[in-house]
Design goal:
401 residues, Rossmann fold, four-stranded parallel beta sheet, binds iron/sulfur cluster
């Protein structure tokens, strides 16, 4: 089924010079210099050139000065500026990635951790530099059937794109095992790509390394064409973002949903299976890709409310005003750079809010957040224990064994 959820970006192959010839590019010139973008940016105070100043420099023909500064490396692609811009300028979708790409080119040295990640992703198809042959290894621990497309040899209803953190890292695999359990319990006709899958490339795009992104897109598109399926799901908020917003420029026209959307759609069927009471107070963190960028606020909350015994409480900043975990736009691999610049980790800012709610569980919908928040909780003092769980993990726990 072909479902286009976003108006297609008209900026494929655009450069900062040609951008202003596109309608979206020309919209940049309608900026009223209100400063809302700079004010709402979680790292605005650390940027020499927040979005308002970038546009000012672009108008004055001085954009090269922006590229030479490392200011844009502080952008974690949180979509706050874009969501709140009164002129509807697609800052995080279009302008900022182009500025980032040029920033990387103009720096005397790219932060080592980021460079290694980009190299790994190009060479191995995943940021951690693992062998592609190990990508499907987690399946052996799933305790339920996880069909692989190349083996089922028939069309399936749902292609589940597992993604890197949830395929390779132990803590991410908890999410995959939980998702497999839920899909089986709901009788979903699904399969995964297994070792044929490579990173969707969202962070390559938003750091912006367009060549890397296009290499991954071309590869994944060829794999999709080998198989027949009706919709694609993924539990990775960044991959969801890539498939929904970027891949349509390369011919992708499948329906795509985050896993939690599919689960919320089947909530009536799921509820009777949630038999184990979880006496947790839960606070939910809206990820930038799903919340601000896709407007998915209600589905994860509906899933959490369906868990018997769970009580949902909100952090001060929630839904559209949620604070980024700091992992987007390459931030996942820039913590050392941020520390050198004296910047507070956003994940620490966020867990302080979570702790203040008195919750036992910080629930998330993006695999990056598991690592970022679990790390932050190690260094932020808190009297009462707090655990981080993907919504799918909590649902699977509530199903019992
Ligand atoms: S919020 Fe929009 S209109 Fe206001 S300064 Fe930023 S880009 Fe310009
Ligand atoms: S996307 Fe987020 S971090 Fe980047 S400039 Fe906009 S508000 Fe700041």
């Amino acid at each position: 089924m072909a479902v286009m959820l976003e108006p297609e970006l008209e900026t494929k192959g655009a450069t900062i010079e040609t951008l202003l010839q596109t309608p979206e590019g020309r919209r940049i010139l309608t900026c009223i210099q209100c400063g809302t973008c700079a004010g709402t940016c979680p790292y605005g105070e650390y940027m020499d050139f927040p979005p308002r100043r970038i546009i000012n420099m672009l108008r004055r023909g001085r954009i090269e000065e922006v590229f030479k500064s490392d200011s844009m490396l502080r952008c974690v692609a949180c979509y706050a500026c874009m969501t709140k811009c009164p002129r509807g300028i697609r800052l995080s979708d279009i302008l900022l990635p182009l500025v980032k790409e040029q920033t990387l080119i103009h720096q005397p040295a790219i932060p080592a951790e980021l460079q290694k990640t980009l190299q790994n992703t190009l060479r191995y198809g995943n940021p951690m530099g693992e062998s592609s042959r190990k990508r499907v290894a987690w399946k052996a621990t799933a305790r339920v059937p996880v069909p692989v497309m190349a083996e089922v040899k028939r069309p399936v209803d749902v292609l589940w794109f597992v993604e890197c953190y949830t395929a390779y890292y132990g803590r991410g695999q908890d999410n995959s095992r939980a998702t497999a359990k839920l899909l089986n319990a709901l009788g979903v006709d699904f399969a995964i790509l297994g070792n044929e899958e490579k990173c969707a490339g969202d962070c390559g795009q938003l750091t912006w390394e367009s060549g890397l992104f296009e290499t991954l897109t071309d590869y994944n598109m060829e794999i999709f064409k080998k198989y027949r399926f009706n919709r694609l799901i993924t539990g990775d908020a960044h991959a969801y973002n890539a498939f929904r917003i970027r891949y349509p420029m390369y011919g992708f026209d499948y329906r795509v949903d985050h896993t939690h959307m599919l689960l919320a759609e089947k909530l009536d069927q799921l509820k009777p299976k949630l038999t184990k009471k979880l006496n947790y107070t839960v606070t939910y963190h809206d990820s930038c890709c799903l919340g601000r960028r896709a407007g998915m606020y209600d589905e994860p909350r509906a899933l959490l409310r369906a868990i018997p015994g769970a009580k949902l409480v909100e952090m001060t900043h929630n839904r559209m005003n949620s604070i980024c975990c700091g992992g987007g736009g390459g931030g996942m691999w820039l913590d050392t750079f941020f520390k050198e610049k004296g910047m507070e980790r956003l994940s620490e800012r966020r867990v302080k809010e979570a702790i203040a709610t008195g919750a036992d569980v910080l629930a998330v919908s993006c695999p990056y957040e598991i690592y970022r928040f679990e790390d932050a909780l190690k260094v932020i003092p808190h009297d009462k224990p707090m655990i981080v769980r993907d919504v799918a993990e909590l649902l699977a726990e509530s199903m019992g064994d």
